[in-house]
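Hi R.,

As promised on Friday, here is the backbone we talked about, encoded as structure tokens. Could you run it through your design pipeline when you get a chance and send me back a sequence?
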């Protein structure tokens, strides 16, 4: 049992974040299922409870309630530390006047710029599709949508151009854009109804937004049967991110449950809105704390050259957003081994999976300086937890694979780089790009072309006021980067890899082979983590046999005729060089009226190779 009041508070906070029974004083937060996102939530809770400054890196160092309690007791007893924390933190997020024009956050400005660059693009639409089973009260559903928009201003905000400078225009509460399509009277069969519902769903989720005239949320409900409704919730990224999805569905469920039962909704606007966050963020742009974080990134990313994978087709002058996805399952034994390896080395599964991915990129490109993008929720302040809006930020995780380290050594490097990045995550990616003076290129993203993401599945509501809600895969098929690997981890520990790729650059077969290489790497690093990176197994056994196994018998027989026995262990290029030395004047190549002898062909091929 906890031995002090501080230990008791820490175990209660840890249990609430992990959604597990209270841990003992010496239980490891990460061994109990903690990960980077939950670590941020725990740190925020402890900051709030004790009025102290704490970082995620400190949680990695003190991973148990006993160690955390000791750290907190030391911090609470140090008045100087509290004052320094207040100086570093500065003023919190506070409401700003709505009388004037409101600025956009850094992330919103980028979304607005990209929308102006390519109006009508599907790339930054966020589709959410649900199939509701049960008697849906459509009037209560519409009312619930309006209630959610009432308490979250960002859902009723438009974006105007003021001489090239975007501003937010918050409209009064009103009805959300809503469409109901009833297919029950069409006389079509069940199969045809489902196909038609799917068609209408895709159409609703792919329709572009006019950000200057429309609010960034629209909803379509397709009634396929009295108790079967297909719901398309289309949002624009300028007002939404993955965390927002959870907040939105939670509030929608609360409002619908109340209205369907004839009660007023308990939803109330929070003390601040997204526009207040945007003003706070812009106000910190030139502050000392932001400058300290910015200096870290400028030093860390100096001289960076983005990783570019070998592609099946050349890159076009402007980036093509078309994309597709390859999904593969991680064997359960490998998923468990990843978690166990992370725990042994004081890391997280995210860091282990990221390290293996960076090894894959190193082996594909031959580079030792590997940088990938990593999205973070970026809700590092208490006021932002319950807000809708674009908070997600991109961190550049740059790892040095030089010296051919063992994977265990590389994992230590990845952990160090990740903890540094988390400690300095408040710098908006868009501001970093501006400060680095990155040259704009319409064919590429700035700073990185490859992204890695580790998602923890679950947490999304599966009911709506008693109705069963089944998530559907639907919406635009796009790729924001050349390649994005998303590892989705279920509550039971099972893992699935989603390789989203730019179909203008890669064939599906290429990405399928890449996914097989990644799974084989995970097997290799978990089986022998002290193996050097260059010696880790990359190829599945079937591919290895295909490449290194015996040639079919007819070829083997022909080789036996033309190659002396003493030379049969040589490679084809070595055999060719020897042949050129033996018969330099013999004709080697004929093309139309042109001929090359062995000496000329060997000279040209050697020059080309050099």
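Update: got your reply. Pasting your designed sequence below so it's all in one thread:
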């Amino acid at each position: 049992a906890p031995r002090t009041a501080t230990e008791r508070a820490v175990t209660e906070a840890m249990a609430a974040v992990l959604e597990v029974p209270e841990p003992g004083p010496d239980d490891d937060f990460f061994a109990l299922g903690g990960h980077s996102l939950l670590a941020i939530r725990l740190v925020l809770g402890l900051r709030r409870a004790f009025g102290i400054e704490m970082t995620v890196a400190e949680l990695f160092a003190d991973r148990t309630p006993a160690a955390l309690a000791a750290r907190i007791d030391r911090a609470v007893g140090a008045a100087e530390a509290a004052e320094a924390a207040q100086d570093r933190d500065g003023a919190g997020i506070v409401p700003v006047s709505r009388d004037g024009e409101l600025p956009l956050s850094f992330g919103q400005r980028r979304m607005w710029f990209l929308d102006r660059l390519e109006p009508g693009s599907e790339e930054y639409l966020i589709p959410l599709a649900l199939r509701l089973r049960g008697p849906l009260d459509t009037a209560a559903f519409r009312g619930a949508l309006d209630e959610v928009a009432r308490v979250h201003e960002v859902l009723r905000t438009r974006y105007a151009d003021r001489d090239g400078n975007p501003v937010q225009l918050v409209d009064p509460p009103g009805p959300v854009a809503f469409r109901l399509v009833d297919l029950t009277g069409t006389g079509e069969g069940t199969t045809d109804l489902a196909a038609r519902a799917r068609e209408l769903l895709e159409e609703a989720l792919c329709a572009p937004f006019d950000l200057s005239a429309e609010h960034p949320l629209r909803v379509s409900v397709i009634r396929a049967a009295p108790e079967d409704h297909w719901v398309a919730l289309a949002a624009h990224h300028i007002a939404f991110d993955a965390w927002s999805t959870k907040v939105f569905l939670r509030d929608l469920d609360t409002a619908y449950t109340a209205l369907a039962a004839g009660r007023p909704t308990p939803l109330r606007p929070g003390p601040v809105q997204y526009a207040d966050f945007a003003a706070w963020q812009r106000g910190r742009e030139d502050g000392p704390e932001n400058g300290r974080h910015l200096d870290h990134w400028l030093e860390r990313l100096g001289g960076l050259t983005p990783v570019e994978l070998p592609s099946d087709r050349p890159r076009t002058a402007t980036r093509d957003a078309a994309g597709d996805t390859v999904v593969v399952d991680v064997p359960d034994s490998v998923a468990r081994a990843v978690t166990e390896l992370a725990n042994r080395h004081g890391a997280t599964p995210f860091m282990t999976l990221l390290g293996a991915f960076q090894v894959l990129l190193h082996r594909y490109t031959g580079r030792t300086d590997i940088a990938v993008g990593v999205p973070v929720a970026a809700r590092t302040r208490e006021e932002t937890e319950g807000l809708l809006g674009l908070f997600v930020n991109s961190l550049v995780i740059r790892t040095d694979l030089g010296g051919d380290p063992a994977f265990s050594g590389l994992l230590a490097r990845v952990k160090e780089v990740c903890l540094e990045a988390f400690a300095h995550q408040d710098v908006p990616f868009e501001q970093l790009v501006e400060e680095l003076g990155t040259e704009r290129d319409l064919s590429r993203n700035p700073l990185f072309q490859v992204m890695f993401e580790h998602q923890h599945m679950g947490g999304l509501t599966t009911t709506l006021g008693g109705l069963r809600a089944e998530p559907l895969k639907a919406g635009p098929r796009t790729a924001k980067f050349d390649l994005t690997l998303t590892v989705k981890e279920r509550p039971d520990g099972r893992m699935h890899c989603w390789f989203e790729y730019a179909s203008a650059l890669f064939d599906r077969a290429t990405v399928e082979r890449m996914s097989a290489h990644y799974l084989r790497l995970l097997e290799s690093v978990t089986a022998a983590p002290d193996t050097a990176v260059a010696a880790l197994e990359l190829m599945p056994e079937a591919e290895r046999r295909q490449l290194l196994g015996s040639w079919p018998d007819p070829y083997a027989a022909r080789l036996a005729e033309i190659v002396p026995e003493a030379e049969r262990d040589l490679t084809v290029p070595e055999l060719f060089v020897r042949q050129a030395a033996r018969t330099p004047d013999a004709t080697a190549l004929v093309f139309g009226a042109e001929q090359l002898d062995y000496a000329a062909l060997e000279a040209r091929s050697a020059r080309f190779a050099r």
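One thing I noticed while checking it: The CA atoms of residues 91 and 280 lie 9 Å apart.

Thanks again,
M.
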